[in-house]
Amino acid sequence: MVEETPDGDGVGTSGVEVRISGTHFPVTTLGPGRRLGIWFQGCPLACPGCMSRHTWDPGGGRGAGLGELLDRWRAALDAGAEGLTVSGGEPLAQAAALSALLEGARAVGREAAAGGRPVDILVYTGHTDAELVAAPRLWEALRHADAVVTGRYVAAEPTDLVWRGSANQRLRPLTELGRRRYGPHLERAATGDTLQVVGSAAGGVLLYGVPRRGELAELERRSRAAGIRLSDPSWRP
Ligand code: SF4
Asked: Which CATH code of 3.40.50, 3.20.20, 3.10.450, 1.10.10 fits the domain covering 17-212?
């Protein structure tokens, strides 16, 4: 349940809890520049071939207070973040919490913008544009996003488009800042690194980004050749 009460800095945080898979800064493969990434936990959409099956279970991950997440956003901004990317999991499976997070992140980001450094908010959702139009409650939860990537991952529709996993997915700028920042990338193919490899505190390895066609299979092949066994990769059923 989400119950919002404004606190001292005008950003409501009391009682808002988000089930998350994790956070990371800096993320460089999910949107322009160095970004804070927040991954929601829980996805009912179950796309075949999803690389993030560990985020499907709504009871997995951990609970995080909105205050904690906004503190991470403030710290990322202090460290030079250019944007926030919210992914999952399916962020809209926790629509009220997402809405509160984006509203808070927008308010916190205004300070950076006032200092001449606008910061954008990008949200990934597996819902299609048509589903969002048909569900005003979901669309409303995205009102503080500058851009969204919409649509299921469809393994049979590979793409080279930057920040998208399959050709059916749409990158949609929603604000003036979103149009400025994402407009030049709508038809651009990905270049450079598309996956970021980060060691996790639990001792495993986390991959952030959108793999190119065949990239995960190649990673498994190379790991095997190097004598490294990948145990329970998140893209295997
Ligand atoms: S690709 Fe995204 S929407 Fe599809 S199952 Fe995975 S987390 Fe859910």
From this structure: 3.20.20
